[in-house]
Description:
The protein is mainly alpha-helical. The chain contains five helices and no strands. It has one domain. It has helices spanning 2-13, 17-26, 33-43, 53-67, 69-83. The protein is globular, with a radius of gyration of 12 Å. The termini are close together. Pfam families: DUF2624 (PF11116).
Amino acid sequence: MKLLQNVINHKINTISQGELMKYAGQYQVSLTPAQADSIVKSVKGKNIDIFNDAKRSQLVKELARVIGPSKAKEINGLFLKLMK
């Protein structure tokens, strides 16, 4: 299980704008390219662990400041789907 968590976290920490847009479409999360770019800049190189509730919550709060609370909530939902 730990290996799968590492793979998912690595993907999130190294995701590109295009990949994020693709996944957003796959999971019915509407994102503009500018929002996707802001999200990528927020996660890139920060070694975020979405399986850690405190770290994920901190990231969602940061995203809420950057892209708005409702969109950050949608992104959190996407993270939760990826964790299953």
